Structures are given as structure tokens and as C-alpha cells.
Amino acid sequence: MNAIISSIPRLFSLRAVILLAAVVFALAGDQLVLVGWADRVLFSILGVPEGASPASILSPEALRGALAGRGLAEPLWADIAVTAGLAITALYLTLAVPLMGAAASLPVTLLLGGSLVVLQAALMFYHNAWVSLGEVLTLLVAGFVLMLFWLQPHTRIRSLTDNVREARLRLARVFLQQGHTDDALEALGGCPRCEGELELRYDIAIQQERKRQYDKAVGTYQSILQRRKNFRDSAARLAALEKLTPDSALMQAGSFDTTRTLLMPEPSVSRPTLGRYEIEREIGRGAMGVVYLGKDPKIARTVAIKTLSYQAFDDGQLQDLKERFFREAEAAGRLNHPAIVTVYDVGEEADLAYIAMDYARGRPLSEFGKPGRLLPLPRVLDIIARVADALAYAHSQKIVHRDIKPGNIIFNPDTGDIKITDFGIAKISDDSRTRTGAVMGSPLYMSPEQLKGQKVTGASDIYSLGVTLYKLVSGETPYQGDTLANLTYQILNKRPRSVREFNADLPNGVVRLINKAIQREPDKRFASAATMAEAVRRLAVREAGQEVS
């Protein structure tokens, strides 16, 4: 019932009245007094027989008699012409006039009315023919007057509608710029045929690809193709998304784990983004996630992006994990030292957190910790001294690295530069164990107190740096175990293997320095990282005969 009531205004709108009038005129126009009056006026204007008066023409029969007296005949095609004229006039009034507006349509209407009079005169004087164009003229004049009443509110409504559509488009663009693709699509829902709507939907689909929301991107591309089949490369992108393998499909946001890369095998699929950073390629993997080479498009800066997968942690610990992650990352971001990688930004997606940091060119020292690939001793001592200096600076800022190892020290052989990476990350992984007995850091380099879960201080970094030195001069580590439990037992209870077992030519001073750095009790190690750096430099001068920078 409500639907019927709501349809009444549409059924009896002025447009419907004009269309209905055109039908009535076509079927019975010659029977209407008003239409007959219009023909009488035309006949009197164009010339009636001498002594006749328009007022004496009271009926269609009388008009036909007067026409016959003038020798004017109605052609066989007259009814068809009048019907066509009525149809064209009705379409003009209901479609063209609203689009043109009152100001533009008024002169056009006057021109059409004058053309009808001229056409009737031409038929009378040159062809001795009469066509009842009064029906068309009546519909044109009366219909235009009615449409003037309709145009004013219609123009306002159309203006408001256009404003609402434009506002929805602007709102959708704002949502898209903020990364809220779902809200952007919802804003476009009330603007299905707006100019620029398809372009905006396409941009939303691209953003969904980059955010790894592949199911949503498929739906958006499908909605675009339903409206326009060949819109840009939507069909190709849709086909590429539909061809993704099950493993690739698992890479959607919410299903990331530490073993899968964000990059897609299909070249037609957009490269993913993390925040504002565009992912270019994978450059490494760790216990917590994948490291990517990325780019900040706003300032054309190349960055390294380290990811931390939430899938590696228990749901009950996730909120606490996030809070500590951002707190540690913020602290690391305050570090400003030439040997420490600068942290630029930190953020999170649905399934992971990430840190954007300075891209340190070079190779991890782990590549130089293997037999046959060891660096010269003077170079190793120089590196260890500079790392110790950087740790001393970090410790002065109340920040402990917790995961010093060769893999977290980047060395550039061409320039000699070093960079320590991953400040603050190890604390998150170490405190959030997800499997019984699993430690997500680097147990081979962990201090005994760190393995015990005790409070970690700068002495723990000194221990790890001592193990790193052990590795760089021998290619081995002080302890070796088949399992984590066995390795932990050895570190906590056994004496370390002598570094001389693997490098018999190592100077005594280097052996003593290593042994002091990896003492089981923290108070027996170097008092500080600065003290260790000074000891390394003295050792370099005494043993290698070369001053260390």
C-alpha cells in the first residue's frame, strides 16, 4: 500500500500529464474545442474567405467546409504528420526543456511555435493543403507553461542532488587518501553514476591490491566491469587476481606468517604497500618476519622495512605485544648515531607491524663469520670497537639491543661503514614466546641472564658482542647444541669452547678479551661497552700494530 501511495506523485507528475495530453490530442484532438480554437486562430491569421469570421467556425465540420471553400485539402499523410509532431513536441517538453532550463528553452519554444505557423502558411499558399497543426501548437504552448512550474523545484532538486553526489565523491576521495577503502566504497554507494565514479572505484581497487585485500579487490573490479566492460585494465587485473595460487591467496591481510613474502608472482597485481611505503623486493628474512626494500614515494627515500608478524604470537598477548612494540620502536627512533640504523617510521596493518628504517648498504657480518671467509683481524677489531661505541651510546639512552649478532651488523666492504640494526625488536620477540621452549631471538649469542628470563642490562649486549667477536675470528661459537634445551644447558652450566680450538694463531690478547666479554656472571665482564671499546683499541695497537678508529 505504501508503495502505491508513494508512486502517485510520480504517476501524476507534470511530465506524465504532458505525455497523456499528447496521446489524447493524437487520438481525439479534432474533437476538442480548445484545439479547434487554435486551428480557427491559425486559419484567421493566414487568411479566411472574404466575409467569414473565425467565430463562425464552431465545429470541425464547419472548419472543413471553410477549408473546402478555399480549395484547401487535407493530405493523406496529415494525421501521421500531426501524430509525429505531437510525439516530438512531447519529447521536447519532457526531456529537452528540463536539461536546457527555462532561460535557454524559452527562445527555442518561441522558434518552434513560429516555425509551425510558417509551415502552415507554406502548406496553404504553395500546396493548397491544410494540416491541423493547432494540436501541436496547443501542446507546445500549454505544455511549456506547465513545464515552467515544474522546472523551478526540479532545478533546485537537481542542484541539491548534484551537490550531494559531489560531496560523496569528495568524501570517498578523503577516505581513500586515509586508506579506508571500505568507507570509500560505502560513500560511493549513493553515487552510482557520478562523473569520475569509475575512476575512483579503480583507484580503490588498486589500493585494495596494495593492502593485500585481494577478495575485496576482485569485488571492486567486478563492479567496475558491470558498468563498463573495457574500463582501463580492470579486466586484466581481475584475471590476474583470480589466477593467484592458493598459497598466494593466503597472503591476504590477516593470513600473513613469517615464511611468506608480501610480493605476488603475478606481474599484473600491484605491488603491496605498508603504510605509505611501496614494497619493491625482499632483501632478507628473520625469525619474526621478512625484511623488504621499500620506497617512500613522498620524498623518494629508499628504506628497509622489517615486519613483525602477529601470527607468531598468542592472541592473549597481542595487545601487550603491540604496546611494547611501539614503545620500543619509539625509543629506538630517538637514537642518533652514525653506526646505528636510523628508524624513520613505525606502523601496523591488520596482520603485522613494521618498522621503516634507513637502508644500510652492505652485507651482514654473518657472511664473514664462516671458515675461509673471515675478515683480517685488524678489520674485525675495528668493527668491534665501533660497534661497542654505538652500544655505549645506546646504553646511555637507556636502550639495550638484546640481539647483537653478526646478522644484525651491516658491513660495507667498499666504504668500511657499519650499521647496527634491529634495536628494540628482540625484546618483543623474546618476551612473547608462543611455543613451549621456543626463543625467537638468537640463543647462540644470548647471555645466560637473558636465557634465564632475568632483567637484561647493557652487560648482556657486551656478552653478545663477545660471542660475535668469537664468531668473526674463528667461524664458530663458544657453545653448540643439537637442541635449544641442550644449548641452553651448556651456556648456563658448561665452560665455553676455547677459541684457540678453531684459530690456533689467534693472539693471546684477543683470547683474553673474548673470555672476559663472555663471562657467565655479568659483573665479571667489561664494566661498560665504552670500556670494552677502549680495550679493543688498546689490543689492536698492541697485537696488530695498527690503531683502530
TrEMBL record:
ATP binds at residue 306. The keyword Signal does not apply. It is an enzyme of class 2 (transferase). GO terms for molecular function: ATP binding; protein serine/threonine kinase activity. SMART domains: S_TKc. It comes from the Bacteria. The chain crosses the membrane at residues 12-38, 76-95, 102-123, 129-151. Its EC number is 2.7.11.1. Residues 277-537 form the Protein kinase domain. Keywords: ATP-binding, Kinase, Membrane, Nucleotide-binding, Serine/threonine-protein kinase, Transferase, Transmembrane, Transmembrane helix. InterPro entries: Kinase-like_dom_sf, Prot_kinase_dom, Protein_kinase_ATP_BS, Ser/Thr_kinase_AS, TPR-like_helical_dom_sf. SUPFAM superfamilies: Protein kinase-like (PK-like), TPR-like. The keyword Oxidoreductase does not apply. This is non-specific serine/threonine protein kinase. It comes from Marinobacter subterrani.
